[in-house]
## 1
Amino acid sequence: MASIDSVTYSTVSQQDSRVVSKTMTQNDFLKVMITELKQQDPSKAVDSSKFAEQFMQMGSFQAMQDVSTNIKLLQAQQSLQHAQSLVGKNVSVNASNGTVTAPVTSSRVDGADVKVTIGGTEYKATDIQAFY
């Protein structure tokens, strides 16, 4: 089954070339569904099975969002655990002045990045080229 994180669309302003992206949340989905119900012709009401299908889609959408969030959290935890396992070990990173090889003295999470301190300088854990 395909995974859907969110529904995204983009618009381009005619006055300039900026692209504005919007992500449809569960609340947006509910608002659209309620508006659809309010504006339907009572003599041509939506089939109850169609309504149930849309409601199930909303539940599936939320479940997929939850799974995606949990996977991202798991990935972040694994990255941090890996970085913590390197504390005290020698690693090599490519720095602006060449390759630096020194022991990792600490690790931390900085937003979406895991950072390690090597030779007194902080690097992204993804910048590590080798460890010994």
## 2
Amino acid sequence: MRRVTMLPTSAAVCALLGGCATQGPQPTEQLARARTVIEQADKAQAQRYAAADLQRARDELSAAELANNKGDFGVARRYAESAAADADVAAARASAGEALQAANEVKQSNRALQQESERAAASGAPPPRSDLQSYPPASPGPAAPPPPEASPPEPQPRPQ
């Protein structure tokens, strides 16, 4: 009778171990990368320009950690990789947003300079001096040495 109960128990243990073996190793590298990329996206102002992508990355990282704690390494790995990808997208959108803002500031500055130039031209006033015009001219300095004459090299005797 004891053998009959032991057979199903050992079969269940083998099935559990076999199920875990297909999961692969614990996804520590993927989890660490996801955390790092999310931190980098935070530093890149992703919350300002790509809040939805960053939040999705954080949610996926939480799901990955939960699955990892439950021992479901395959699911944890997929969530961690997805979290890293979403954080990369958030960081890229943040960089694009920063670049767009800088470009708009340059355009605005150029418009202001153009308006100043037009006002000065309309009033007949001379244009303002640039910073370079306020410096004295450069001194000529010492003359450069003349170039060497282009004569063929003298043949050297061959050692015997």
## 3
Amino acid sequence: MSDWAADGEHGRGMVADAMLRGVTRGQGRWARRLRAGLGPAVVLATLSGPGAARAVADGVPPAFTQEQAERGQAAYRRYCQNCHGSRLDNGEFGGAPLNGQYFARHWGAGSVAGLYDYIRARMPADRPGRLSPQTYADLTAFLLSRNGYPPAGAELTPDAEEQQRMSLRRE
């Protein structure tokens, strides 16, 4: 069972409770990240965990290009494949699956912003938040493409408001 699924003090999960305690005490990595400029929105998105409800204003489908997904695949191979595997579900270091039913269950009810924010705040596990915003957008595009979302005519940008309008819900 993942740490997000386990019950914590307030039903958020053990990891979320631990991070919240660190933020509220002004100690720990989340407080440092707030001071380092990751911003409260990214930290709060992370505290919410994967699959947390996110308001989707317009419900437009995700927008990314095939070329962007290919750049994301190259970044995935470099930064993510050791933990998550070549098939996105067979990593040698136990990273969570990033495809199929697991992806749909954790991300299918939210927005692209929720997925992007989570990746940016938590990955790569050994240096979270250290990639460029565009690389995180490319990685997000790759994950979307590998989960059956079709490419569109425009690239996915790191713009939070634009991403928030993009729904991962399927009709």
